[in-house]
Design a protein that fits this description.
single chain, elongated, 5 strands, 3 helices
Length: 93
């Protein structure tokens, strides 16, 4: 599912809301999650899961084309851990 499909589904299920308002709500939610993660905060949506940021240390990598050693800087990557309700639903329980 992509963002526009999510917006359309929410708008269809809530005919009292304008689609532009639903789009603004969805975009605001995603922006808040992104901003919190950029600050290094953890975002938990009960029953769905938790978004967090993990730090990957710098390392020496290898260029697969030339085999040459390359320094890879440390970086922060997003991480998602599913909640129990989501896991149970995916496994048919």
């Amino acid at each position: 599912m992509i963002r526009s499909e999510l917006i359309q589904i929410i708008a269809d299920e809530n005919p009292h809301l304008y689609q532009r308002d639903v789009e603004r709500i969805v975009n605001t939610i995603f922006e808040q999650i992104t901003d919190a993660m950029a600050r290094g905060d953890r975002v938990e949506l009960r029953g769905f899961g938790a978004f967090s940021v993990k730090k990957r240390d710098g390392r020496v990598g290898r260029n697969p084309r030339t085999g040459e050693s390359v320094d890879v800087d440390e970086k922060h990557v997003p991480f998602f851990k599913t909640g129990k309700l989501l896991r149970d639903r995916l496994n048919g329980q």
